[in-house]
Amino acid sequence: MSSRWLKPYLPRSLYARAALILVLPVIVVLLVVSVAFVREHLEDVTGQMTRAASREVRLVLEDIQGAETQQQALAAVRPDLRLLDMQARFLGSNETPTIEPRRWYDFIAPQIDADLQELLPNLVAVSLPDSQVATLFLNTHLGVLELGFDRRRLSTVAPHQLIVTMLFFAVIMTSISFLYMRNQLRPITRLADAAQAFGRGRVVPFTPGGAVEVRAAGSAFLDMRARIERQIEQRTLMLSGVSHDLRTPLTRLKLGLSMLPEDDAKPLLQDVNEMQSLLDAFLDFSRGASEGEQVEIRPDELLRSIVDDAQRAGQSVELLPPEGQGAVMLRPTAIRRAVENLIGNAVRYGSHAMVSMTLTDKSLRIRVEDDGPGIPPEQRTEAVKPFSRLDPSRNQNQGSGVGLGLAIVADIARVHGGVLRLGQSERLGGLCADIIIGR
To answer: Over 70: is that where the pLDDT of 39 sits?
Structure first.
C-alpha cells in the first residue's frame, strides 16, 4: 500500500528496471564516498594547510609593519619571500585587485577562501584561478599588498582526482555490467516478442536460449504453441470434414424433394436450406481467423472495398472518412469476414449501417454502428459466445442465425491480438461494435 505512489515513476520494461537496479546502488555509493571524502579528508587537510600558509603570510606582514615606504617594505621582506618562495608587490593607487574566475569543478576553493578570511583579518580578496597559483590581496599601512605563491600550499593537488577516478571506473564497470545484463535479458525479450507475435496470429522463429530458467520457459512456450496449433488444426479439420460429408446427403435430399409436389416439398426444402446455412456457418467458424497470412495492408482501402461490395449488394451501408492513415499487419481475408459479419448483422436487425476507422500509433479501431434495437449491457458478454442467440433483444423476424456471427468476429479480433467491444451507438442509437487491434 505504501509503495503505490512510487509505481507511476518506475520504468515499465524489464531492461529499464534491471538498469535502474544496477545503476542506483553505484550512484548512491559514489555520493556517499564523495561526501565522506570531502568532509572527512579534504576539509581537514585543507584546513591544516591553510593555517600553515596563513602563518607564513602573517610573518611577511609583521616584517612590513616597521617600513616607512613600499620600497623599504619590499626590501625588508625579500629574505622571507625567498625562503617562503613567494612573490610580492604593492598595487598602484589607481589599481584594483584582479580576481580571476575559478574553475567550475574547484569545489575546495570556497573553503580556502572562508578559512583565509577567518585567519587573516587584513585580507581583501583571494584569487584561485587554477591549481598552480594563489594570489592574496592584503591591506597594509602602505597600501594593498599582492602576495602570490604556489596553490598547492593551500590544498592538496587536484582534490577532485579521487572522485574523477571513481567516476571513471564506475562508468567502465557499469558499461561492462550493462553489456552482460543485455546478453542475459535478450533471450527474455525474444521470448516476449515471440509470445506477443503468436498472440497476434503470427508465428516467428524462436529458439530457447539464455539461463536455465529462461530456456525452460522458452521450451514450455514452444510446447504450448505447438499444442495450440494442433488443436486449431484439428478443430478446423473436424468441422470442415463434418460440413463436407453432410453436403452430399443434403444435395441428395434437395434432388429428391425437387421431384415431389411443390406444396409437399416446400416445408421440407426450407428445413434442408436451414441445415445448409447451419453447415456454412459451422464452416466459417471452423476457419475462424486461420485463413491467410498476415500482410501489411492499408485498412482504409480494405474497408472501402468491403463497403462498396455491400452497397452493390443493396445494403444500406455508409463509410465515414478515416481518422489516420497508414499500413497495418493484418489477415485481409479474416478482417473482411469479420467486418462483413458486423455489417450483415447491422442491416439484418436495423435499416442502416455506418462504418468508421481510427488509426493511431498504438491501435487500429474498426467500428460498425446500426440503428437497430441493440443489445442490453447485461447480455453483451453472452452475445459473443458461440451458438448464443439473443432473440428477445435482436428482432429474429428480420433474419435467423445460429449465433456464430459475433463469435467469429471476436475470434478474429483475438487472433490479431485485439478485442471485440460491444456498446450503444451515439450516432444511430443501435449497436456499436468495435474491433480494436494493437499495433
So the answer is: no
Q: Which of 201, 232, 229 is closest to 416 using CA atoms?
A: 201
Phi, psi angles (nearest 5°) of residue 126: -130, 135
Q: Does pTM top 0.90 for this prediction?
A: no
Residue with cell 486449431: 232
CB 371 within 8 A of CB 350: yes
Average pLDDT over residues 147-152: 91
Query: Which three cell numbers mark 411?
Result: 475470434
The CATH class for the domain spanning 9-159 reads: alpha beta
Task: Answer for the pair 275, 394: CB distance below 8 angstroms, yes or no.
Answer: no
Q: What is the CATH number of domain 292-438?
A: 3.30.565.10
Angle, helices 14-36 vs 161-199, to 10°: value is 170
Domains of the chain, by residue range, sit at 9-159, 292-438
Burial 182-207 (b: 16+ CB within 10 A, else e): eeebebbebbeebbebbebbbeeebe
Question: pLDDT tier at 431 (50, 70, 90 boundaries)?
Answer: very high
Q: What is the average pLDDT value for the chain, to the nearest integer? A: 82
Highest mean pLDDT among 2-11, 13-22, 37-46, 96-105: 96-105
**Cell, residue 121:** 583579518
Q: Cell numbers 439473443 label which residue?
A: 390
